Amino acid sequence: MATSNDLLIKQRSAIELLAAKGFSAANIHARMKTVYGEMCISDCAVRKWVRICKGEDSRETILRDRKRSGRPLSASVTAHREKVDCMIRANRRVNKRKLPMQ
């Protein structure tokens, strides 16, 4: 089964193809709604991607999301994991509030 990110990339690809063939954003959204149903992106998002694909928006066409700054997907590091594991082994009744949050 495809992940939500894979599904989004497929939909953006379909928008790029249909926009290049000259279909309107409303027509593209109607076609995608028949294929993807409830998982289809919104009409507003389709219009945005049609503008991007046609070059009317200053952004370049990149189907995948760019990496963003901020908190990493996985905040745990090996040293932190080992420290927490040692605390749990020493006292099995330790609660979440007493575990280090860094």
The count of β-strands is: 0
Structural class: mainly alpha
Q: Unreliable segments (pLDDT under 50, ≥5 consecutive)?
A: none
Tell me the major beta sheet: none
Report the radius of gyration as a whole number of Å. 22 Å
Ends distance? 35 Å
The percent range for strand residues is under 5%
Mean pLDDT: 80
Order of helices and strands: HHHH
Give the proportion of residues in helices: 40-55%
Anisotropy-based shape: elongated
Brief rundown of the structure:
The protein is mostly helical and 102 residues long.
3D structure, described in words:
- The protein has 102 residues and is mainly alpha-helical.
- It has a domain at 4-53.
- Helix content is 52%, strand content 0%.
- The longest helix has 17 residues, at 4-20.
